[in-house]
Amino acid sequence: MLDIDALLRPYWDSLQTSHGPFDLFDAHTHIGQDDPDGMKQTPDELIDVMTRADARAVVFPMHEPSGYPGPNDAAIAAALGSSGRLVSFCRLDPRVSPAEEARRCLDAGAVGIKLHPRAEQFTLHEPGVREIVAVAHERRVPILIHAGRGIPALGQNTVELATEFPDARLILAHAAISDLAWLWHVLPDHPNVFIDTAWWNPADHIALFSLVDPSHIVWASDSPYGLPVLAAWTHARAALQAGVSDEALRCIMGGQTERLVTGADPLWVGPAPGASEAALHPLLDRVVTHLVSAIGRAFGGGNPEEPLALARLACAVGEDAPHADVCAAVLQLLDLYEEHLAPPPPGRPFPLAGRFIIAALTVARTPAVPLPPLDLPAPTRETADA
Fold first, then answer.
1. Fewer CB atoms near the end CB (10 Å): N or C, the chain?
2. What gap in Å lies between CA 126 and CA 375, rounded to an integer?
3. Closest CA to 19 of 196, 253, 180
4. What is the set of domains in the chain, with CATH numbers?
5. Which of the 8 DSSP states describes residue 32?
6. One Pfam annotation, family name (predicted)?
7. Percent of the chain with pLDDT over 70
8. 336 in the Ramachandran plot: left (φ > 0), alpha (ψ -120 to 50) or beta?
9. Three-state DSSP class for 325?
10. What is the DSSP-derived secondary structure letter of residue 41?
């Protein structure tokens, strides 16, 4: 079986040596067998992948069309039996006895709540949502809210609820991509609103890390949709590219999540670096543009071969060119993609090996962050064509 995290581990270990160590605490993972999208993960599989990443994790049920009491019990049991590797959130449908189910699960050992407006087809205007946030305020626990693609922006509702219930800790998932354009500016007024990093695009991550105070950001992989080592390495590279300090990065990668799930007051680690990043070198800008195009095609079920070929040719800068080491690493990661390419899992458009393209994109977009000594061939036309 393809183990992408193991293949990328040297990159992550090198970054940890320079900027860590990090006590990883993943704020966003799933278990379940019945999600209509076809994804599955058992508790043992999650514990295994987190153990190999030296990470702890928050776990909650995947989408369960038949209801959540049973899956919530399974998540709580998985956490209680994980020797501290996992902590559990309960997943709630705001139309089905939400306050009662929240209290039942929190009394049984859950330490937070998950809401998924897209899967359960609700908005944050639902009366049940307010009931849930009131319970979170009463118990001082976090609520993780799906805030990615496929739903209307919900940031305004979130900050309104955060104002009304200041002891609830509201986490917008997936880099809050639907609201980040304005949300960053108001977050200093809402110390109980947070954003997780469970997303793939380094441009979104760099904007997040540049503009949002690091105390408001928590690292997340979205396992099994994402991979913990890949997510830790790529998200940390984006943070360092944006100018986040090592102390603040340790808070992002696990320290703040530890405080949120234990009911402690959030940690303050200073302001955001600000939008001061230097312009990307034109040679790397070409690589980034073609790789983003390739990923877009792959996510849409199309063929990324042409933009990948253009990205490889854009890397053929020669050994003495600016950022030759970056281009050589990109070519190595694209070689890994081609070596391990296989049809995607059933019902999923994106092949597992496509994560190597995401890794290559992140390397190209974060040239200020040193790479490990890789002893790679020079990025020449011959290497690009190989």
1. N
2. 56
3. 253
4. 4-262 (3.20.20.140), 282-385 (no CATH)
5. B
6. Amidohydro_2
7. 99
8. alpha
9. helix
10. B
Name 260's Cβ contacts closer than 8 Å, sequence gap at least 6. Answer: 27, 112, 142, 169, 171, 194, 218, 266
- Is residue 97 a contact partner of residue 67, using CB atoms and an 8 Å limit? no
Residue 150's pLDDT is: 66
Arithmetic mean of pLDDT, 350-367: 97
Angle at 242 between CA 241 and CA 248, to 5 degrees: 105
Are 231 and 219 in contact, with CB atoms under 8 Å apart? yes
**DSSP per residue, 234-255:** HHHHHHHHHT--HHHHHIIIII
User: What pLDDT score does 37 carry?
Assistant: 84
The one-letter code for the residue type at 227 is: L
pLDDT digits (tens, 9 = 90+) for 181-216: 999 999 999 999 999 999 999 999 999 999 999 999
SS3 state of residue 180: helix
In this predicted structure, what is the pLDDT of residue 356?
98
Q: Strand, helix or coil at 152?
A: coil
Structure tokens, 241 = 């590219």
pLDDT score for 148: 76
Q: What is the pLDDT of residue 184?
A: 98
